[in-house]
Amino acid sequence: MAAVVGDAAATRVRRRRAAAGARAGRFEASVRSAGGGTGLGPRWVGARLDVDDAGLTVVRLVTGMRPLRRAPVRLAVDGVRRTGRRTGRGDALRVAPGLEVLALDVPGGVVEVAVEAPSADHLVERLASVGGPRRTP
Q1: Less Cβ around it within 10 Å: N or C end of the chain?
Q2: What superkingdom does the record give (predicted)?
Q3: Is the pLDDT of residue 116 over 80?
Q4: Residue range 3-35, pLDDT digits in tens
């Protein structure tokens, strides 16, 4: 029983931190390239997204248990779309199941971002305000 209470408390703390970070323009997410030369690979990787007025910076953290030794990737976002998809259990080793998947139109291709649903709303708003002519909330 204590583990269940601890897990519930940890979930609340994680969501509260995610909401605070979202208000500041920082998002914890998983990202992958869905096609094109975006500078990201086709596998899901854990990342921190920093959104500012000029665009999006993807700071990749880990894939599996290895830290990635790559420089942050700076992307100019042309548009953001909700795909209506959620991550599945088959991707569980790379990304948590049940996260909302967003598609970002960037020069050179499309980047998929998987975030928790409350953070997805904030991310769409932030990117729509930064995005170019094709922005679609």
Answers
A1: N
A2: Bacteria
A3: yes
A4: 444 555 656 666 666 666 656 678 888 888 887
| Both tokens assigned to 27 | 């998002």
- Domains of the chain and CATH, by start: 2-130 (2.30.29.30)
Give the residue carrying structure tokens 């942050």.
72
3-state secondary structure the chain: CHHHHHHHHHHHHHHHHHHHHHHCCEEEEEEEEEEECCCCCCCCEEEEEEEECCEEEEEEEEECCEECCCCCEEECCCEEEEEEEECCHHHCCCCCCCCEEEEEEECCEEEEEEECHHHHHHHHHHHHHHCCCCCCC
